[in-house]
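Task: complex structure prediction.
Instruction: return structure tokens for all chains below.
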Amino acid sequence: MSIDIALTLESIPKMLMGIGVTFQLLFITLGLGTALAIVLLLMRISGRWYLSVPSMVYIYVFRGTPILVQVFIIYHGLPGLEFVRESIFWPILRDPFGCAVVALTLNTGAYVSEILRGGVLGVERGLLEAGSALGLSVRQRFIYITTPIAVRLATPAYSNDVISLMKSTALVSTITVVDMTGIARTIVAETYAPYEIFLSLAIVYLIITWGIQKSFGAFERRMSRHVKQETAA
Amino acid sequence: MDATIGWWDDFFWAGLEVIQVFFVAMVGTVALGLMGAAAKLSKSRTAQKIASGYTIFFRGTPEILVLFIIYYGSAITLTSIFQFFDPTIKFVDIPPFWAGSFGISLIVGAYATETFRGAFLGVDPGLIEASRALGISNLKTFFYVRVPEMWRLALPPFGNHMLSVIKDTALISIIGLDELLFVAEQGMGATAKPFPFFFAVGGIYLAFSTVITLTAMMLEKRANRHLEGSR
Amino acid sequence: MIKVFKIATLAATVLVAGFMQSASAEKLRVGMECTYAPFNFKNASGDLDGYDVDVAKGAAKLVGAELEFVCQKWDGMIPALLANKFDLIVASMSITEKRMKKIDFSAPYRISVGRLVGSNSMTTPLFDDAGKPIAENFAGLKIGTGRATTYSSWFEAKMPSAKVILYDSSEAMYLDLENGRVDMIMTNPMKAFLKFLSKPNGKGFKFVSPQIDEKKFFGVGVGIGMRKGNDALKAKLDKAVKTLSTNGSLEKYAHKYFPFAIHNEKWTQ
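Output:
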């Protein structure tokens, strides 16, 4: 089996043209998804059943079904319903990129809200009690004590989710969005060289993932600068 | 929903395919996870590097891409490898079922490697010492003390791995396996009514993941039954 | 640790051995899309049906081979053939020069044409009387085609500035025309007529171009694809296709779906 190096080298720039779409998708979905996650989290820990139950059901459904199925339902399934086509959401759902954003946001919102909840649960009661003894209200305690600590605790899991999200963006090539994977599939279809193209694309994704992990590592170190570090054995 | 009626037997068989892929991929995941963890925990630098490379590659590459590479690329590689040993072999083929299961095993196995590694490291050294002090052999210590403890620690994230496996089976539809999503696409093509089909597929997957989550919870309860305060 | 490694490796090897399968030579595996009615699709009872399926079965009987059908997404069809996923492609694949560089084809068993389908409200002519496309009138329109099809090649060559959306499957493409995600699609006119324009969901649409069958892009027709180097098989299949044509089988297969025959000798506008 011979590897066509020339083909690989000239395909990489073509695939990189899709990187803009990949990143746009990543950042928009992260922003919206995290916002959604915070809403879901507040609903979940609110203690009022009419808020926490819908939130739990939502999280359960979106974490329990494959993301590809969710993408297909939103892209193929929804337009089949009359009232969707007439609604105000139609301009967004009409555009494949819009559908991708909606599907990925809804999905990542569920995962991130569970991650944040893990962070919130990890805050030591002692700290909250101290805050209460100092006269801070529930709201103040939440904003000034719980949140910074929860964020720090949740960061490793959150960074994993960001990487997962980045990998999920590759799925949008199945609903006609022209991202790096979409371009790669077109090149493969024309040159019949799947190995070279897909492997080089994998390396591109690896580089991006590595970059994300490094950034989060730096962020984590900064957030933990007040914590005594164990010396590595 | 009545658009789907003629297709329920297809969904049934496709559902069985998904379950089969799940079990095969789970065996692969556990095997690869243990191999990877063993390699990472071993003294050999080479083994550690290989295992590191493995986890970095498969945790950082989109799943769909891994499946494409294995499906299209593997037959060529494997054929060349096998022809080296036996030139009379015409070709070695990997049907989508095995390519997909293998791909999922590789991907989730990379995550499992980290999970098992952390779990092995988390086993209380005191327990091992106590076991040795009682005169229990190394082998027996391994199977009766280390593994059960490791398993208990690994269970929560392992439950997530099981969920990942079943959800990743949906991706195999893209390389042509007759699983649920592929059936839904065919149904959508034949009836031009996409919504009921995809909705049904979502429901079936939700049912599967519920079963897995409940199983994981039961396993956790059982593994922790000896601990004080566990209900 | 070593024990774990050994046991796990053993398990992995057993698994890997199970992953391997050598296929036998008497059986021919046929790759097709399985979502391309009425040529190759799954009917309500879950069996593969369609013109391509009938041609494959007919040819197999004539060459004395057993068939196994493998479903494959269109854009991976040729890579999959080259990767030995199956031995033949009977999926309405047009015999084009570009493809002939990589694979061999049998004699054509169906003609290959394309046509644009758009909404009834389209009034500006997109093609002049000579059948040439008027580039300016295409501006701003979104056109759907399949990835790696003769249709997308035609568009790329004729109108590189047109906004072409590439689809994984034709069914998704038709649905998007219906719900307005694309303004036009370029597709096989036989399929368009049978499965879309004559059905209730196709009511608001019509053909917006003449038939396009430039040999350069569409070839001489659609044929059975196979890997290069198998001249014996190619000769057998050529003969089989010719026989199916002369003994009226192709016509019979076509009549199951169309009021006309669709193979080269009999095709009329």
